[in-house]
Design brief:
single chain; 317 residues; mainly alpha; 13 helices; 70% helix; OppC_N
């Protein structure tokens, strides 16, 4: 259903700096973000989620120094036989064992953290940017513009996220860039609808009526007041989406859409080559799967804690 655009401000005259400051004070509501971060600091679940995310981010950033071997190195190729793959602790220097090709599993996991998180972060940023652009246009102009934008978003939403991502990745070819674009595109409608809904809710707030009374134009009100105050739910969703992006990246790589060879270190690709070795080397699937699960858990805990901290029903307690 389409909505009307922001009504023109009466008078049309420019607002003074003091008047704008008054509107900003009304909008911030006595330190909203300060209260949110204070609640996060008191929430042990938020600390656990932040610690997990920070740990994997540090591993990804410091991978060149933490990994015992380069990403594509196969230092244990001579130790692997068709019927036996050395497991964790069997050979000195390979604490988590080897893979089918003789690669050090610990090094692969460390390098895989960099690849998986990079795909997750960039794809989420892409989806966030595209979704916010569509949501901003729909929420700002309303009317027929809103109708056209939201019908396009509805079409995207009618296709399951993973199916849409697989289709786009298949069209673009096998590469990490294709996976980033595919996952990001599947997230665009989620952010678009969320921002639009948040903006529509903010437009009826008292501080918007005050801004219109002061003579601020539609663009000024939207960009300076409505949009900043509508970003809370989008930020929460972005944090939660990082978890699904990491999982989707692993799923697409598992399906062979990630590009790279067998020596490429990425958690989803590690699962791809581990499935044929489950009978003799189950740890090859368990370890990258565990990394994916813990990373997704960290982002989920952090996102849910942020959602709870920003929920007015819990903040009022």
């Amino acid at each position: 259903m389409s909505t009307n655009a922001l009504p023109p401000a009466p008078g049309g005259g420019p607002a003074t700096a003091a008047a704008e400051h008054e509107v900003l004070e009304a909008r911030t509501g006595g330190g909203f973000w300060h209260d949110v971060f204070a609640r996060l600091r008191r929430n042990p679940v938020a600390w656990i989620g932040a610690a997990i995310v920070l740990l994997f981010l540090l591993v990804a950033i410091l991978a060149p120094w933490l990994a015992p071997y380069p990403e594509t190195a196969l230092p244990g190729a001579r130790e692997v036989t068709p019927t036996h793959i050395p497991g964790p602790g069997e050979i000195a220097g390979f604490p988590l064992g080897l893979d089918r090709f003789g690669g050090d599993v610990l090094s692969k996991l460390i390098w895989g953290a960099r690849a998986s998180l990079l795909i997750g972060v960039i794809s989420t940023a892409f989806g966030l940017a595209g979704g916010m652009l569509l949501g901003l246009i729909a929420g700002m102009f309303g009317g027929w513009v809103d109708t056209i934008v939201m019908r396009f978003v509805d079409i995207l939403l009618s296709v399951p996220n993973l199916l849409l991502a697989v289709s786009i990745a298949a069209i673009l070819g096998q590469s990490q860039l294709a996976i980033m674009i595919a996952i990001g595109a599947s997230q665009v409608p989620i952010f678009a609808r969320l921002l639009r809904a948040s903006m529509l809710q903010q437009r009826s707030a008292d501080y918007i009526l005050s801004a219109q009374t002061l003579g601020l134009g539609r663009g000024k009100i939207t960009m300076s007041h409505v949009l900043p105050n509508s970003l809370g739910p989008v930020i929460v969703q972005g944090t939660l989406t990082l978890a699904t992006a990491v999982i989707d990246a692993a799923a697409l790589s598992f399906l062979g859409l990630g590009g790279g060879g067998a020596a490429t270190a990425e958690w989803g690709r590690m699962l791809t080559y581990a499935q044929s070795e489950l009978a003799i080397a189950p740890w090859l699937a368990f370890l990258p799967g565990l990394c994916i699960m813990i990373t997704a858990l960290g982002f989920t805990l952090l996102g849910e804690s942020l959602r709870e901290a920003m929920d007015p029903r819990t903040r009022a307690r």
